[in-house]
Amino acid sequence: MAIASEAAAARVEPRLLEKALDAAMARGADYADIFVEHSRRSSINFLDQRVDKVVDGRDCGAGLRIIRGTHSIYGYTNDLREDSLLRLARLVAAAEGEPVPERPPLRLEAQDLAGVLEIGALAGIAKRERLPVLVAIDQACRAHGRGIAQVDLTMAEATRSFQLATSEGRLLEHTRQYVRFVCTCTAEKDGEKQSISHSPGIQGDFSFFTGLDPARFVEYAADVALKMVAAGYPPQGEMPVIIGSGSGGVIFHEACGHPLETTAIQKGASPFVGKLGQQVAAPCVTAIDDGTQSGLWGSLPIDDEGEPSQRTVLIDKGVLKSYMVDRLGALKTGFARTGSGRRQSYRFAPASRMRNTYIAAHNTSFEEMVASTERGLFAKSLGGGSVTPGTGDYNFAVREAYLIENGRLTRPVRGATLIGNGPVSLSRIESVGDQLEHWAGMCGSVSGAIPVTVGQPAIKVSSILVGGRDQAVDTGQMSM
Asked: Residue ranges of the domains in the chain?
């Protein structure tokens, strides 16, 4: 059976894993692990009301790491034959050292390679069976208004199966399956264009696609694109900003989340170094990184180092409580591991990374936030941005925004940017909403690009610098 043979090809026998570990530690090491991975990715792109591109790719390989003290050496290969794995082990072990005591034999702790079978089942669904979903969403978005000039859709699936063997005698096997749908609508008016995307994703199977509601893509992509292409530009300067739920969590993720990873803490390149137990935000702010929530895009029962996932409270009622810690980060900082060791693939050594990171819901309604704001900006959803490592200084584009005037939402505005500092903005959060929303995304860092979830309820920040084109805006009112 072809599917079974794929699973067998992805799996390396424990005997060979043990030989590779022995070779890696032969010249001295405190610890070694080998990560064997088999992955498959497929996608179908629908553009100009037809199938434009179909991609189906596979990859397999192994990464091997040794740790001596607080230093690590990592190498990888895409050749899983015995001579290649042993050659890799000898290269990684090349530094001088003394032989180590006999290591314990491997014992299988967790086995979940059954998902490998779903690689074939998922890719085996005929492309014609996917077309009704693509056509329905395309037609719904185009029908929303004549100004919709283009709809670009992508249906993407990925499966990762891996084995992890360690010099501590641990052997783990696990599979993760991801599905995501990306809808980008482009609106055009008077020669100007505005593109807005909506891209939900979960860990799941093909039923995720058949359960999608076209109306959601009309609301989050087509309708927003039409509003923004017709909008004026925001005033500039310091002002109160209400940051919307869901994608608004990207600011905390980038400007505060990354500085809370031991990847940054161990280098001293974080504004949160040495601040455990200190007040870093208002009492209404509780921030969590949770890898245990079933089905969420960034969840994982075990991390890529074999550590059980957990719910890590980073900030509790404004007080900094924890960092996100991988194995090497624990050795360098002394903090306990949090199941945060992640990597894009076998080509990357694991590092401390976020999973599902969000600001927890509190007790203020969105309507109360707006009513309490005389003049400000409602940044309903955010786009891309940049953050300066070590300081938390950020600059983020706002995809959808509205002015707040005299306690009411009024005009839509486009081209706004939020400019600030993560820890400073964290300390300026006045209120946190009561409706939490999650948002799937990809995060790039030292160990590659990985699936993560950001999230928050709406939050009100007393002051953020708003940039943008300072032009006259339409004086018409818009209610929300």
From this structure: 2-229, 237-467
